[in-house]
User: Fold this.
Amino acid sequence: VQLQASGGGRVQAGGSLKLSCVASGFTLRNHAIAWFRQAPGKEREVVSCISSSSSDTYYSDSVKGRFTVSRDNARDTVYLRMDSLKPEDTAVYYCAAPMRHFTIGTREEDYDYWGQGTLVTVSS
Assistant:
């Protein structure tokens, strides 16, 4: 199983990026998928999660109102749209998938498969 997150890059504060997560050897559409991030010198933290049907979503307080998680189950792809980016959003962003089925999971231990991460750098 391989997950691949892409779409990161360098952007100025206030800008936007859209991350994508795809998988090989695993069907994303059947599972809740989460986005985590790890900033330099900090622990990895959950950013957002979306249920398999898209009916439920979760956002951390730090990104609520600025980030939007979505999925296209026909394309088996999960997205994270990031608007109004701030320098404190600078981090490596990971998508994660679980073997189990649940609606929403916000803990690292909920997830079994991780992408390699995509770097988002927000300059002031």
Notes: The mean pLDDT is 97. The longest strand covers residues 17-24.
